[in-house]
Amino acid sequence: MLIQIILLAAIGWVAVVLNRSTGDARHQAIRRLLLVAFILAAAASVLFPSILSRLANLIGVGRGADLLLYGLVIAFLSFIATSFRRMNRMQSQLTALARELTLARAGLVDAGLVPDAASVATDVADVAHAPDAAESDGALPEPSDGPAPEAPGRADA
């Protein structure tokens, strides 16, 4: 019963912490302190496994391994939620950058400093169909009456 209360409280705490803004230095400091505490607890559980078993029995879990599993589930849910928030923030930043880039490009096109995409596509199509680009249309060159040119660096013996 006690473990259920603890796990529900931990899940609630993770939900509250992850719904707060993460841009300030205080939040980053708390995350770093929690990471150090996690590392110390992990090292203690490896060096002294009986402590983890005693703690598990104290809060109503049968084995220390089960308590470790419950903790890992909480950590995994925290990681998922944090990654989701980070992905959403990056998506918003990418959208804002794309809008700024589009507006800046439109301003440069209006000022005549860069060509617009339609005129660049027209210029590329004109170059592809230019008269001096006879070989680019897929036609084979006409055979000549003279001897075939020799391959460079090759001498007949």
Précis, in short:
By secondary structure, the chain is mainly α. It has helices spanning 2-18, 25-47, 49-59, 64-111, 117-128.
What does this structure look like?
The structure is a single chain. By secondary structure, this protein is mainly α. 71% of the residues lie in helices and 0% in strands. It contains 5 helices and no strands. It has helices at residues 2-18, 25-47, 49-59, 64-111, 117-128. The model has no long low-confidence stretch (mean pLDDT 76).
Please report the number of helical segments: 5
Mean pLDDT across all residues, rounded?
76
| β-strand number | 0
Q: Give the CA-based shape.
A: elongated
Task: Describe the secondary-structure layout.
Layout: H1 2-18, H2 25-47, H3 49-59, H4 64-111, H5 117-128
